[in-house]
Amino acid sequence: MPRFPHRAGREVLDRHPRLPPWIVKEPLRLAELHGMKRGLRESGLHTVCEEARCPNRGHCFSQGTATFLLMGDTCTRACGFCSIASGRPAPLDPAEPEEVAARVAALGLRYAVLTSVDRDDLPDGGSAHFATTVRAIRARSTAEVEVLVPDFQGDPEAVARVVASGPVVFNHNVETVPALYSEVRPAARFERSLEVLAAARRTGQALFGPGFRTKSGLMLGLGETEAQLFEAFHALAGVGVDILTLGQYLRPTRHQLPVRRYLPPEEFESLGRRAKDFGFRTVYAGPLVRSSFNAHEVTRGDGLRLLP
Questions:
Q1: Of all helices (H) and strands (E), which one includes residue 303?
Q2: N or C: which end of the chain has fewer CB within 10 A?
Q3: What is the set of domains in the chain, with CATH numbers?
Q4: What does the pLDDT look like over 55-76, one tens digit per residue?
């Protein structure tokens, strides 16, 4: 049985094209990262850094930081861009929230990011597990917590449950423009993601005041047009998203969607400036920008930030 049986009909024999010179993936220094990786393995924890083959994982691990992947390493959806395996997930581990909190405290993190696979098999989409983990971290350390959540199938109670646990940033990525959803995010809907972000903003600002932030991001290079991007910027700004990230889609393995175009750094700068005009508090743009990369600094900043 192949690891990605849901993608059996997708062409998997094409080769990776040569990367342009401005895409420089930082090499993994395995000896330096051994302690971090061993600690995660011993605690049974997963990171999206490894599962999704993030190009910045060497940088983040060497800095002693990671984005924790909750609720296992098997997703109930099969998004075209993602290398995380899909299938039937294992039951939730009730010890995971405390184990994540203990690891955050042991690493001395100032800022922790929590994300997850989609768990459409759970009645609440895993929102209670997110909330329990946020509270466990806050009880053990002074680390601020950002959550990067799935859409919970649009359940406003699930959104409110996570927000009420006290993250400083509620992040939900729309990933791409609506016209590409059938290929990139076939089990999702752009409008539903907007509703999730709007509900999070309303609840968060009612509970915590104007300091509460919402965040979203898009991957570029999947075939979107500039006009479609501007429509997406307008829609995200319209529901009050504070922080927008724009990064280059990089194909994790040959099983995922191919890259249609590599955007040069100067185009990211131009798009970032245009996005800022829509009213976002912060825009972080660049080929290797990822949703949780440098998350603490981006959350604290204002204006346009560029990552070459």
A1: strand 303-306
A2: N
A3: 24-306 (3.20.20.70)
A4: 545 455 444 456 899 999 899 9
